[in-house]
Design goal:
This protein is mainly α. The chain has one domain. The chain is built from 4 helices and 2 strands, in the order ααααββ. A two-stranded antiparallel sheet has the order 1-2. Strand 1 (83-87) and strand 2 form a beta hairpin. The longest helix has 16 residues, at 55-70. The radius of gyration is 18 Å and the shape is globular.
Length: 97
């Protein structure tokens, strides 16, 4: 937020959306803005689905990625791939830890 205020339109809009059962809409819009700002992979359809069905998990993921991106790590949080992977030396297996 550029300026702090105890009452602002973003909070009022979120409260109204929450009251009428549409809290996922501002959350979806925020996720799209973060994807655009940090050039993250994803789509508007994915943002919509995640915000609607997995809203609290999506908020935790968004916070964690934003914290990592603003603390100097320039790559978004990636889930490690397990199983067989194609690497320059040939196929290798990465077991679950």
């Amino acid at each position: 937020m550029k300026e702090y205020s105890s009452f602002n339109l973003a909070c009022l809009g979120y409260y109204a959306a929450l009251h009428f059962g549409f809290a996922w809409v501002p959350q979806m819009m925020q996720r799209g803005e973060l994807r655009a700002k940090y050039n993250l992979k994803g789509s508007s359809c994915g943002d919509c689905c995640r915000s609607y069905w997995c809203s609290w998990r999506e908020l935790f993921q968004e916070e964690k990625e934003l914290r990592l991106l603003t603390q100097g790590q320039q790559q978004p949080l990636q889930t490690p791939q397990l199983g067989y992977q194609n690497v320059p030396e040939g196929m290798t297996y990465v077991p679950k830890q």
